[in-house]
Amino acid sequence: MKIGIITQARATSTRLPAKVLLTAGGKTFLQHHLDRLAATGLPVIVATTTNTDDEPIVEQSGAAGFPVWRGSELDVLSRFAGAIREHGLDGVVRVTSDCPLIDPAVVTEGVDRFRADAAENLYVSNCLERTYPRGMDYEIFSADRLLRADAEATLPADREHVTSYLHQNRTGDMRLLNLPWDGGDASQYRLTLDTQDDRRLLTTLIEDFGAAQLNCADLVAIMGKHPELHALNEHVEQKKLGQ
User: Fold this and answer.
1) Which CDD domains does this chain map to (predicted)?
2) What does the alpha-carbon distance between residue 180 and residue 235 come to, in Å, rounded to a whole number?
3) DSSP bridge partners of 122
């Protein structure tokens, strides 16, 4: 079974434009993100748009040796479907590029669990019920099911948010499996990049605490010991689907 990671990236983010191209510790957040994903040993594909604003994403990804698939900005489901076909994937790990500190071991655990079953209708995630910090999220599913969603989904939200056709079980036969964090509940922490305050936290973690080399448990421990870090972005509300 050929499983690959597809990460979606674009420069036209609304709350923090070109956020993945901002830098911390001498690298863009996109480069940090791709470095972490590469540590899984899985193929990594960057799914971006055909917009000219996304040329820097294409250039950075290509320079680092990661293939890029370009498609619709709003119909992200079709973008993923195109990447799946181009690379002949049997299984897909979906992540988003605003997670520069995603833990490769966390992703690998999910992939191992998916491989152990490998059912065509299985959907594995660690955020159906949140226990991990935001920024560690992944979803894993069969390529066949995503291609079926691409063929059948008509709701704009399903086209934009890629996997809602699967995890909302619109076909009625999906098996949903949530893998919680064995370290307890760290869902109060935001290690994702969406606002300037998120950027301040992530930059501090990378430049002052060596976060680029740390795993999820290490990062949670730092956040627990330094409430002033949590205070940097604890007020940020996650954007709802459709916003």
Assistant:
1) GT2_SpsF
2) 24
3) 175
What would the two tokens of residue 56 be? 């820097």
Q: What value does the mean pLDDT take over residues 199-220?
A: 98
Task: Classify 25 in phi/psi space as left (phi over 0), alpha (psi -120 to 50) or beta.
Answer: left
Please give the pLDDT value at position 239. Answer: 64
Confidence of residue 15 (pLDDT cuts 50, 70, 90): confident
Predicted confidence at residue 243, as pLDDT, reads 37
Give the Cα separation of 207 and 26 in Å (integer). Answer: 9
DSSP 171-240: TS--EEEE---TT---TT-B-S-SSHHHHHHHHHHHHHH-GGG--HHHHHHHHHH-HHHHHHHTTPPPPP
pTM: 0.96
In this structure, what token pair is assigned to residue 22? 């901002």
What CATH class does 3-189 carry?
alpha beta
Helices 29-38 and 104-117, axial angle in degrees (round to 10): 40
pLDDT digit string, tens, across residues 19-52:
999 999 999 999 999 999 999 999 999 999 999 9
Domain coordinates in residue numbering, the chain: 3-189
> φ and ψ at 3, to 5 degrees?
-110, 130
